[in-house]
Amino acid sequence: MKILIVEDNPTVRKLIQRATADIADEAVTREDGADALEAYEEMRPDIVLMDVKMPRMDGLTATRQLVQKHPEARVIIVTDYDDDQFRQAAREAGACAYALKTNLTDLEAVIQAHCICLP
């Protein structure tokens, strides 16, 4: 499985990489939404793990643009914000799931539940 990790905090990026290491054949990281859009075009990942608050372009804007251009894109918002308003905004942007950074041990299960990856 190819995973695109979009997170501006380098420590959290590494934690997400570790949390997905068992299922990722390839993991690419980017620091903001604008870079994520470019990386998606290059790698066509099976899943995108997207932070919400980032410089240049936030994760909700990037998700919206990505899903509009590529309806097949599977984006999971990974955030600190355990808030119904953010969950609703993520759904409206086109995210298929919402995961909390405080539960990264559950991230693999969230990915497998929301990503149908064909060989």
Automatic annotation (TrEMBL):
SMART domains, sorted: REC
All copies of domain Response regulatory, residue ranges: 2-116
Record InterPro entries: CheY-like_superfamily (IPR011006), NreC/VraR/RcsB-like_REC (IPR058245), Sig_transdc_resp-reg_receiver (IPR001789), ST_Response_Regulator (IPR052048)
Keywords: Phosphoprotein
Key word Coiled coil present: no
Modified residues (4-aspartylphosphate): 51
An example Gene Ontology biological process: phosphorelay signal transduction system
Phosphoprotein among keywords: yes
Record PANTHER family: TWO-COMPONENT RESPONSE REGULATOR (PTHR43228), TWO-COMPONENT RESPONSE REGULATOR ARR22 (PTHR43228:SF1)
Annotated protein name in UniProt: Two-component system, NarL family, response regulator DegU
